[in-house]
Each structure stands twice: as structure tokens, then as C-alpha cells.
């Protein structure tokens, strides 16, 4: 992607940062670029194509520029690095999570990133038939965790609403009552993310027949 099409994509990303994903429209992008909406269609076939290009841009930016270094890493190191990059990207661009959850990877840039994940899973020894499923599992966990952080689902209140659930009338929610000391969110969600990621990687090993 180059020239005017690249400019259009950069403008769309900037608008999403300013207004959220709902603020991205062909009209809004055209106004920022300085052309009519109809002129925009000569470079981007429509909003669906524009959103697909945004997905491609986000996913392509996750890959390290030093491909030689990546090829020397183990499969789990590559997946872990990619997972951390996704979390960082969603925390920087909160609108990215709903976009990634709503659109499949279809552009060459987007597909190339998914291919890196497939390749790591194959290297791990995962049977071919299981590779797409485990890619979906991994990506859903990573994007979902980051989305929960930026959306407020993983934000502690004062008092923490999760801890409060353990104080509801005893007997109605016995498991909550038992787990009350453990219901509050941890102060360090990064540590929890790493523990969850490690669990997912161990699951991948199990799927590959490794224990």
C-alpha cells in the first residue's frame, strides 16, 4: 500500500485513536484527507475494505523487523513475543480489540502474521488439523485479556466489586463465599497475563503430545 491509499489508512487510524472505531467513516476520512467521499472510493473500495486494511496494518506492526532474529527463537518464544506485542498494541489503541474480533485476517499483511502463528504451532508439533483451532484459542485469549484491561472489566473499584460478591448473603453463593480472599484483582495484571500465557503455551505442548 502506498501513495494516497497509505495516507487514507494513516488518517483512518488517527481518527480511530481520536474518536474510537465508530468515528471511522468514509466521510470522516475523506474530509480529513481533503477529498470527496466519492473520490475516496477510487483508492479504497468501501468501509469494509478500509477496516480490513486497518486490521492488516495493526497485525503487520506486531512482527519484529529483524526476521533473522525471529527465526532463531523457539516456537514458544515467538508466540510469547507476539502475544505481548498484541497486549501492548490493544492497550495503546483500545478500539483495536473490537476491530480484530469483528473481522478475519484477509489482507496479505494480516495473513502473513497469522501464518507466523501457524508456523510456530507446526514447529511445536501440533497436528495440522489442530493448528487453526489453537491459533483461535491463543488469539482469543490474548485479545480478550487486553480488551478486558482497556474496557474496565479488569479494573478494580473501591471497594473491588469482585470482593464484594463474596460478602453477599451467605448460602446463596457458597463458592464466592469460600473464595472471598482471592476474588480481588491482582495489583499486577502483567504477572497474571504471563501466567495465563504460560498456561496456554503448556496446553499447546499437550496438544502436540508433549507433557
Automatic annotation (TrEMBL):
Gene3D superfamilies: Homeodomain-like, Tetracycline Repressor, domain 2. Residues 2-62 form the HTH tetR-type domain. Residues 153-172 are annotated as: Disordered. InterPro entries: Homeodomain-like_sf (IPR009057), HTH-type_TetR-like_transc_reg (IPR050109), HTH_TetR (IPR001647), Repressor_TetR_C (IPR004111), Tet_transcr_reg_TetR-rel_C_sf (IPR036271). Keywords: DNA-binding, Transcription, Transcription regulation. Residues 25-44 bind DNA. It holds the Pfam family TetR_N. The keyword Transcription applies. PROSITE patterns: HTH_TETR_2. This is TetR/AcrR family transcriptional regulator. It comes from Microbispora hainanensis.
Amino acid at each position: 500500500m502506498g501513495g494516497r491509499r497509505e495516507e487514507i489508512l494513516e488518517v483512518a487510524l488517527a481518527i480511530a485513536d481520536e474518536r474510537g472505531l465508530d468515528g471511522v467513516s468514509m466521510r470522516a476520512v475523506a474530509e480529513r484527507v481533503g477529498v470527496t467521499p466519492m473520490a475516496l472510493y477510487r483508492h479504497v473500495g468501501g468501509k469494509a475494505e478500509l477496516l480490513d486494511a486497518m486490521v492488516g496494518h495493526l497485525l503487520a506492526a506486531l512482527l519484529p523487523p529483524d526476521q533473522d532474529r525471529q527465526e532463531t527463537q523457539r516456537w514458544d518464544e515467538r508466540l510469547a513475543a507476539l502475544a505481548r506485542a498484541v497486549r501492548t498494541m490493544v492497550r495503546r489503541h483500545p478500539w483495536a480489540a473490537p476491530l480484530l474480533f469483528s473481522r478475519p485476517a484477509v489482507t496479505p499483511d494480516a495473513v502473513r502474521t497469522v501464518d507466523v502463528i501457524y508456523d510456530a504451532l507446526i514447529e511445536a508439533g501440533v497436528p495440522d488439523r489442530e493448528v487453526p483451532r489453537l491459533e483461535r484459542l491463543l488469539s482469543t485469549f490474548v485479545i480478550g485479556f487486553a480488551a478486558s484491561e482497556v474496557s474496565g472489566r479488569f479494573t478494580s473499584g473501591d471497594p473491588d466489586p469482585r470482593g464484594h460478591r463474596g460478602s453477599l448473603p451467605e448460602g446463596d453463593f457458597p463458592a464466592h463465599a469460600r473464595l472471598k480472599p482471592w476474588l480481588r484483582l491482582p495489583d499486577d495484571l502483567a504477572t497474571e497475563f504471563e501466567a495465563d500465557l504460560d498456561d496456554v503455551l503448556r496446553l499447546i505442548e499437550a496438544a502436540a503430545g508433549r507433557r
